[in-house]
Sequence to fold (285 residues):
Amino acid sequence: MQTAAEIVAEFAARPWRTVPATDLGAAAGVPTMLTSEEGLLYHWLGRRAQGAGVAVDLGAYAGGSAARLLSGLALSGRPFHVHSYDRFRSSRAFWARYLPDEPLPEVDDADLLPVVRRHLAAWEGHVTLHVGDIGEKHWTGGPIEILSVDAAKGSAMADHIAAEFFPALVPGRSILIQQDYLMAVQPWLCAQMARLRDQFLPLAHVPKVGLVFLCVSPVTPQALAAARVDGLTDGKLMQRVREAARWHEGMVPRAVFRAMLEQVKAHPGLRMGWQMRQASARARN
Ligand SMILES: C[S@@+](CC[C@H](N)C(=O)[O-])C[C@H]1O[C@@H](n2cnc3c(N)ncnc32)[C@H](O)[C@@H]1O
Fold:
């Protein structure tokens, strides 16, 4: 088994960047909101899996992240399974942008499930789709080796996801991808992780805004209570963002955290990414 220091060195070399895109096979054709580097990362993480647990994909949209995990896992030589969570519904605007080859639905909030099932058909038997609000879901599926968080769009959801899924991570083995980690309009993510510094080791910043962590210690109820972000005052939230800036010194430019602090100052009390984005757009116009 690799030591934490060996895993840090492994990720510092950014080996996913040299994965030939052809290795992704059928996954390469599945539409995704991920950048090409993020897509390679997901595939590579799947391929390096060591059988410590399943993969969980929180925020699947059309199945792009799941497909890339699955294409890698299928090459890992181990039994594998991906649990993908989403409402599996799409606005017409997102559909037109991310699924240009699919007929545009008549209605907004269109059902994505038939499209997702088709996209993931190559890995039938290795995927479970959990349909509905993640805020109402509970994890009872045992150890998780790879956890991708792309659905913590508000502070309450960040707390819920941490409480349900982080305790299933295996110290020394499990990888957490915080897909939106450095987004200025989602400052609760780094505020949460700054208080989980004893449980997670940052491994890599993967542009644009993702951070990858190694779980190094069990995530206990006490750790979760200390890391809660919903209900923090703006002042406390900003204090935690500053803690995160110090923690990630050398990995993430300070300006990224300054942008988060600006968002909190400009939009007191807002705790959903879309609210902050809309308020910023209104202020610009
Ligand atoms: C950025 S997209 C995910 C992109 C995807 N990983 C990919 O590879 O293209 C975020 C997804 O999170 C889902 N999501 C956000 N909040 C959710 C919630 N409370 N319950 C279920 N799904 C949610 C949205 O439906 C959306 O599909």
